[in-house]
Amino acid sequence: MTLDRRVRRPFAAVAATALVAVLGACSPGASPSPSPSPSPSPSPSPSAGAGAVVVTIRVGDETYRILLTDPADIAVARDLAAGKEAPRIPNGRVVRGDDGGVNTGYHWHIDPKDFEWADFTVEVCDGLPSHVENGTITSDRFCPWSAEVVGLAPAD
Predict the structure, then answer these.
(1) Residues 16-48: pLDDT tens digits?
(2) What residues does each domain of the chain span?
């Protein structure tokens, strides 16, 4: 039996994230750090490409935006916006220290090349967009469990 890509990707991401968390916690001298880890170098602004969309996501009373370029990710976003069943947790690598690109008002964005929709994720990347902005979430990934797709628009 071959698993659909929508199923394989979330399992692989969760397994990899869990392994990194366990290995990090088991490292000699490992201790929680109260300050954010160094920011990776900002990646160049991704080109939107034909068919790309900007998805607006609400988490609590906050919103943020993600540029999606992968047709499968766009299809999931459309399903979620239409109220259909699909993996509902946006899970992507945070790129810090830039103007936010499509994520207006923030100094970070989600890398569209390192993004997926998941059914479940580890808790370390759950939170509000403001938690990514202010450094409360220090993980290199953002995966808000209570996310809701509230808008889709063609990328310019």
Answers:
(1) 444 444 334 333 343 333 333 333 333 334 456
(2) 51-156
